[in-house]
Amino acid sequence: MFDFKISTQSQFDEACRKFAATHNLTELAQRAEMKVQTLRNKLNPDQVHKLTVEEMLLLTDLTEDATLVDGMLAQLQCLPCVPVNEMAKDKYSAYVLKATAEVGVLAASAFGSGKVTANCRRGIVEAANTGIRCMMLAALAVQTRIHSNPTLASTVDAISGLGASIGMS
Hints:
Number of helices: 8
Largest sheet: none
Mean pLDDT: 82
Radius of gyration: 20 Å
Strand content: under 5%
Low-confidence stretches: none
Shape: globular
């Protein structure tokens, strides 16, 4: 049913490096109840120690930073995660504006004449991931708004059914 293909690029290794550079590992190791050197080693792709799934979930939960999960998904050539718990009904316009801003960042980088450095590539990927996340949150906000109003939900269902029956004729 699914055809996952592991990327030949080290997406997860890059995510581990970024995560380690972004967070105070001493404080995070205490919160995760592990030794700081163990955490450093597990986030260093050159070391033999690797993060377990449970540790990755714990670190993501403690920091609310999806970098590790996004790196894992990118390694499988999948889109970034969308934390549904971030969604708020009243933030639809904010999600759309943020997604538009991220598309602007991508457009600006597409017309850049300079060499694409590792930092530039990271910025492009981060802008794309944030844009995807915001677009999905906007879609979920609209879906939630529709389904919270029974009359509107019934109307949408009726129109969807009508569209399906017309398409079958």
